[in-house]
Amino acid sequence: MKSFKSFVTEKKFADLKPTKGKWTNIPNSEFDPELSAQLYDLIDKSYSYVGGHANYRTANDLPLGKDKDDSSTISWYALDFDDDPEADVLNVTKKTKFGDKSVLGATDGSKEAKHEYVMNMVKKLNQPGNYAEVSDAIMHILLTRYGVPTVDNKEDVEKILGKKVEWIGPNPDNKYPGHNGFYARQLGGTRHIKIMLGKPNLS
Length: 203
Fold this sequence. Notes:
With 203 residues, the protein is an alpha+beta fold. It has helices spanning 33-47, 111-125, 136-144, 154-161, and strands spanning 24-26, 74-79, 89-96, 99-107, 130-135, 150-151, 166-169, 182-187, 190-198.
């Protein structure tokens, strides 16, 4: 008699037959414990320095997150570009009335994976209907190296987020001259300086 385990199919990213070097959409219906664990490993590596991602605390939170959005609003994209068959980079977006918001980005930690993630963000955030909140290293890179557009108006930022923010305006450390859209939010019990990038639909 076959064991129950033999009837259980554990899915990996490679089973989706992604094209090497191209971003692949992962339908929410494809997630199972094995795939979730594999992708969560990238999230854990990328967000451990801030105490983890607010909506994805464990592999069990994939794919919708702790707030359990309607599955039609959450889209997962992964990229495999190296010799092994595992995903190297992740980008998760949430569809809102202002466009597609990038809500999660993760890599395997390699220099190449980080470069692929940044290039994907630069491309998206220069297209109308795409936006993201950023802070720390990725904020510095996108502002100083790539001149990604910013949302510098407090009313627009609060309208998009649907909440009040601790508005700062110009960077408190006198960095990034010409960008006046900085604000503060609490993440994982730590205060982070953030700015909204991209071209959300405001009309």
